[in-house]
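Q: Structure tokens for this one, please.
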Amino acid sequence: MKKYIFAYMLETGKFISEELSSASKEKTCAVLSEFETKIAYFQHERLIHLIVTVLFAVLEMMSIYAFLITGNITVLVFCILFLVLLVPYVMHYYFLENSVQEMYKMRDKIVSFLSSKEQ
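A: Here is the predicted structure, written as tokens:
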């Protein structure tokens, strides 16, 4: 997913920097429409990863609490396993969040250019 998002952002960034000023209104609207569709897909991906990340954070906290109460080594193993899974989920969610916010800025550039072109 990271490669896909990076590639798509590079492609759109290239359009904004190199082609936006000379592109027709129809092409710009088509790019904007496709871009907004991709943003919606990435927002959905971000939401799913937020849910999974929160789930693993809750499981981590519950397993820590269970370990503190029972002192059972098996529960400690679960604590470590949940932590090992939680860290990459947090990192991936952080990437998704920042990427989508950057896409908002890119979309705003396209929209403001279209608005200035209509005036």
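A few notes: The longest helix spans residues 25-70. The helical segments are 2-19, 25-70, 73-118.
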